[in-house]
Amino acid sequence: MKYYKNKYSFEKMCQILKVDRSSYYKWLKKGKSKRQLYNEELLVLIRQEYIKSGCLYGSQRITAILKKNNVACSRPRVEGGYKSRVEGKREIFEYIV
Description:
Blueprint: H1 10-17, H2 21-29, H3 34-52, H4 59-68, H5 75-79, E1 82-84, E2 90-92
Helix pairs in contact: 3-4
């Protein structure tokens, strides 16, 4: 809604999305969830291990390393921390929750 606030009226957007204005403002003030905070910490650890490996290790190896260091994570979650890019190079990207 922030993105479209200059294009459409706030009241109209709330009406179309069937959201109370008070609920929207309450949601805005709410901080990040525990899961979001943990995902951000996990992404930092994934990036560190990926870079340490010379950008060679895949999700299985990184998951094994993290588990060895007592970090609770699964392979699919680690896999979400990076993806293949063009020219066969791997590039870290933002974790999507």
